[in-house]
């Protein structure tokens, strides 16, 4: 057996038996890996008395992703000190959820607060980049919900201001940063568990109707506000393509978009797909708004990573017909298939981003990667062929 293969097998064995040595056979072929050692530890800056590592604020709460953004930053040692929302109804509900956080009277109040080091936003997508520019110009770092930028003109200005200010402009690609199985896949790929990565296939189906009875706001159905389906929900898959293939350069081979089933929303798009080629591998992306109400979650998100010596499949939110929980990872190499239950794995993005704010480093995500993922999404959106089904 060749040494590289032996090293991969050794890593997988150590990974699946870590923490409590819990390795068990499942009904699936191969083995089941359950326990996993945390990949991060408490930082030295986190004092025993709970002193926060930094203070952060929120401006713009138009999408519920803001709660995972806040949660990640708190896990990283941040203290949530203030928020501002221009919509009274949204602000009231947010204040009820975070009763100990000050409600600022204006955006400017937060921008001029010298004690605030990081600003988070899940504002209406088209408003996120202009806000991020103002945040950086006030000497603060910024974390936007995806899509963090909705036009190529916005991207050019964000790049210019970021270069001038040297501040961090981070976009929370939550389907990687907030999905434990995807984080685990990153560790496995880095260790060479499937050899050299050749291609990723990322599927991002979403549910259009809110089965709990909520109503989506009008901006949701107008692409000028959300940037288009590829710009918006496919941004996750561009991030994962770059990350897992290790590509630092890439181009869009082909893309298409359409509104094939919702004529009542003429400015909406409900389907899109993309082919990509990078200097580290290839990629395919498909996103849509066709998750049926019978599914237990908003979307059966999946990621397949093909390598020279195996493949990884991630079932992010559920395992259809088997489990309503998420974070399922299947690894097949030259010898066997191993199943990883990743529900107890850590999510290091918040900790790493706080590290970067404090240390002026790029451990959570490089700025080049962040902007390249966005640029590819915007180019694919801009140049997409329009789908017109006749039957």
- Rough shape? globular
* Class derived from helix and strand content: alpha/beta
Number of beta strands? 17
Mean of all residue-level pLDDT scores: 90
CATH superfamily of the largest domain: Dihydrodipicolinate Reductase, domain 2
CATH topology of the largest domain: Dihydrodipicolinate Reductase, domain 2
Oligomer status: single chain
The helix content is 25-40%
- The proportion of strand residues reads 15-25%
Write the layout of secondary structure elements.
Layout: H1 3-16, H2 18-21, E1 23-25, E2 31-33, E3 54-61, H3 65-75, E4 78-84, H4 88-97, E5 102-103, H5 107-111, E6 118-122, H6 125-137, E7 141-145, H7 152-165, E8 169-172, H8 174-177, H9 180-190, E9 197-205, H10 223-226, H11 229-232, H12 235-245, E10 250-258, E11 271-278, E12 282-288, E13 302-307, E14 310-315, E15 328-332, E16 337-341, H13 349-359, H14 367-382, E17 385-386
Parallel strand pairs: 2-16, 3-4, 3-6, 4-5, 6-7, 7-8, 9-12, 10-17
Antiparallel strand pairs: 1-2, 9-13, 10-11, 11-12, 13-14, 14-15, 15-16
Helix pairs in contact: 3-13, 6-7, 12-14
Descriptive account of the structure:
Helices cover 34% and strands 24% of the residues. It has 391 residues and is an alpha/beta fold. Strands 1-2-16-15-14-13-9-12-11-10-17 form an eleven-stranded mixed beta sheet, with helices on one face. The protein starts with a helix and ends in a 5-residue tail after the last strand. Mean pLDDT is 90; it is low at 17-30 and 34-42.
């Amino acid at each position: 057996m060749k040494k590289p293969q032996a090293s991969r097998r050794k890593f997988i064995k150590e990974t699946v038996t870590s923490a409590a040595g819990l390795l068990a056979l499942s009904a699936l072929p191969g083995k089941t890996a359950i326990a996993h050692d945390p990949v991060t530890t408490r930082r030295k800056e986190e004092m025993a008395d709970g002193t926060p590592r930094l203070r952060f604020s929120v401006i713009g709460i138009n999408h519920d992703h803001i709660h995972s953004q806040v949660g990640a930053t708190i896990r990283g040692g941040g203290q949530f000190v203030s928020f501002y929302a221009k919509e009274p109804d949204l602000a009231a509900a947010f204040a009820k959820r975070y009763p100990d956080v000050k409600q600022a009277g204006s955006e400017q109040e937060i921008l001029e607060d010298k004690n605030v080091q990081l600003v988070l936003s899940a504002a209406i997508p088209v408003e996120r980049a202009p806000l991020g520019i103002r945040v950086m110009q006030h000497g603060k770092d910024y974390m936007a919900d995806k899509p963090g930028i909705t036009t190529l003109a916005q991207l050019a200005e964000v790049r210019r201001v970021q270069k001038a200010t040297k501040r961090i402009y981070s976009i929370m690609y939550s389907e990687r940063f907030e999905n434990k199985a995807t984080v685990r896949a990153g560790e496995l790929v880095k260790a060479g568990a499937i050899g050299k990565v050749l291609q990723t296939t990322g599927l991002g189906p979403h549910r259009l109707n809110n089965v709990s009875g909520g109503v989506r706001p009008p901006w949701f159905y107008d692409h000028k506000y959300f940037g288009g389906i590829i710009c918006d929900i496919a941004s996750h898959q561009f991030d994962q393509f770059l990350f897992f293939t290790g590509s630092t350069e890439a181009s869009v081979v082909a893309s298409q978009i359409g509104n094939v089933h919702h004529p009542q929303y003429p400015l909406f798009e409900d389907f899109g797909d993309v082919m990509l080629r990078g200097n580290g591998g290839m990629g395919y992306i498909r996103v849509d708004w066709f998750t049926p109400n019978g599914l237990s979650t908003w979307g059966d998100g999946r990621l397949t990573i093909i390598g020279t010596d195996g493949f990884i499949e991630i079932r992010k939110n559920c395992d259809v017909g088997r489990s309503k929980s998420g974070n399922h990872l299947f690894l097949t190499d030259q010898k066997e298939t191993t199943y990883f239950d990743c529900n107890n794995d850590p999510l290091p993005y918040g900790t790493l981003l706080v590290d970067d704010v404090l240390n002026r480093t790029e451990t959570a995500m490089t700025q080049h990667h962040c902007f390249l993922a966005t640029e590819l999404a915007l180019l694919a959106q801009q140049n997409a062929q329009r789908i017109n089904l006749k039957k």
